[in-house]
């Protein structure tokens, strides 16, 4: 079986769109369609039902998709192990959400590297949604994310708990506001698909509040850029306590309590369901989870 075609089929199903899958795979839509037809011809069955709403698996397609996850995972393991043997140095391919990757993780990596100097460590920092996609695409093998995904092909282990805190500048920010007042203050949020934004949306939905009903003045894809905006007095934002610990300690920003609204969450180690960690990947996962706070 052509594994390239199988991989294209797998990504198409995950994207639920030939056009989106073609973009992810860096293929033209006709080129991807040809690969899917060739796979169906090779297997002698129809795998997908195509419509203007996307793609839907046939019964035969469901069977092939389940096997595809296992076969692609095994293929990835083989490539990884052979590459490590050729290069004679173990590698860690880690993806992290920005809340951890830009703050706590570098310290933990530094400590881990001192324990295992022979390991080459590569870190890719994105939002949680992109980290999950990179796991599914076999670009990375370990993910650190801000929320528990619903994907049945991703498994998680809890690292530590954290809290999203509404913050403003230290000059004229109130100490406490009501839910109704939250609707009116100028808010700066993380970008769509980020873990932080997902957690805010989920918490507000429980209070029957939608983001479009709030005064969101703009989005930024960087916690540091958001903090700069807050310090300049441009507005307020929800950020994880982990990312603002230093500013809170120095009293450069002010936490604002929102009545009857608390947003607690966990950070997770994430991996593919059928993936087996290498020796050093397992050491890293154990190191992060067994640390007193998960991170330095």
UniProtKB/TrEMBL annotation:
Domain HTH lysR-type: 1-58
SUPFAM superfamilies per record: Periplasmic binding protein-like II, Winged helix' DNA-binding domain
Keyword Ligase: no
Record GO terms (molecular function): DNA-binding transcription factor activity; transcription cis-regulatory region binding
InterPro entries assigned to the protein according to its UniProt record, in alphabetical order: LysR_HTH_N, LysR_subst-bd, WH-like_DNA-bd_sf, WH_DNA-bd_sf
Keyword terms of this UniProt record: DNA-binding, Transcription, Transcription regulation
UniProt record similarity statement: Belongs to the LysR transcriptional regulatory family.
Descriptive protein name: HTH-type transcriptional activator CmpR
Organism whose genome encodes this protein: Clostridium tepidiprofundi DSM 19306
Protein encoded by which gene: cmpR
């Amino acid at each position: 079986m052509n594994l390239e075609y199988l991989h294209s089929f797998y990504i198409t199903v995950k994207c639920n769109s030939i056009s989106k899958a073609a973009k992810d795979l860096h293929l033209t839509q006709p080129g991807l369609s040809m690969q899917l037809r060739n796979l169906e011809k090779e297997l002698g069955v129809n795998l997908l039902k195509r419509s203007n709403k996307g793609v839907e698996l046939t019964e035969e397609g469901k069977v092939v998709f389940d096997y595809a996850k296992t076969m692609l995972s095994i293929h990835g393991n083989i490539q990884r192990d052979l590459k490590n043997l050729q290069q004679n140095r173990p590698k860690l391919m880690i993806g992290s959400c920005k809340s951890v990757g830009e703050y706590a993780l570098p310290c933990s990596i530094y400590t881990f590297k001192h324990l295992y100097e022979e390991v080459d460590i590569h870190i890719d920092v994105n939002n949680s949604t992109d980290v999950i996609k990179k796991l599914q695409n076999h670009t990375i093998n370990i993910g650190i994310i801000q929320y528990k995904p619903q994907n049945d092909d991703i498994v998680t282990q809890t690292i530590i708990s954290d809290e999203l805190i509404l913050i403003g500048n230290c000059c004229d920010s109130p100490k406490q506001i009501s839910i109704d007042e939250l609707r009116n203050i100028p808010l700066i949020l993380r970008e769509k698909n980020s873990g932080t934004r997902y957690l805010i949306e989920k918490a507000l939905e429980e209070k029957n509040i939608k983001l479009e009903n709030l005064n969101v003045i703009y989005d930024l894809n960087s916690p540091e850029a958001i903090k700069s905006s807050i310090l300049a007095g441009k507005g307020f934002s929800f950020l994880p306590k982990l990312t603002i610990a230093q500013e809170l300690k120095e009293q450069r920003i002010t936490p604002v309590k929102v009545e009857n609204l608390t947003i607690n969450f966990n950070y997770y180690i994430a991996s593919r369901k059928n993936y087996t960690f290498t020796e050093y990947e397992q050491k890293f996962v154990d190191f992060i989870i067994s640390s007193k706070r998960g991170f330095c």
